[in-house]
Write a structure and sequence with these properties.
Strand 3, helix 3 and strand 4 form a beta-alpha-beta unit. This protein has 100 residues and is of the alpha/beta class. The protein is globular, with a radius of gyration of 13 Å. The model has no long low-confidence stretch (mean pLDDT 86). A 4-stranded mixed beta sheet has the order 1-2-3-4.
Length: 100
């Protein structure tokens, strides 16, 4: 029940793909599957270079909210430590406010 949107934007004369992911709803296995499918389709280098925008609703419904949140935090920290990787951006969804 999550959405994936692929796009791109111009950044310092290089095209950087923007990958938008929404409505994870605590589904850790599906998040891992999505990421692995992106790597299989685009290649690890392209995925690393891409900017990820997570569109909220990280929790509620699914069985593994904590694992999803831990994965997202680790993903962001790893990207923040490596200037060659794209950004990881987050928007809070209505389900996230309800669980706060």
């Amino acid at each position: 029940n999550f959405r994936l949107v692929l796009g791109s934007r111009m950044e310092s004369k290089q095209r950087r793909r923007v990958i938008c992911v929404g409505d994870l709803h605590g589904n850790y296995e599906e998040l891992c599957s999505l990421y692995n499918n992106l790597v299989a389709e685009l290649g690890q280098a392209e995925v690393d270079f891409s900017t990820f925008c997570f569109l909220g609703d990280y929790c509620d419904r699914g069985p593994d909210t904590r694992k999803v949140l831990d994965w997202l935090i680790e993903f962001k920290e790893a990207r923040d430590c490596d200037a060659s990787k794209g950004e990881a951006l987050f928007v809070c969804g209505n389900h996230d406010f309800g669980m706060a």
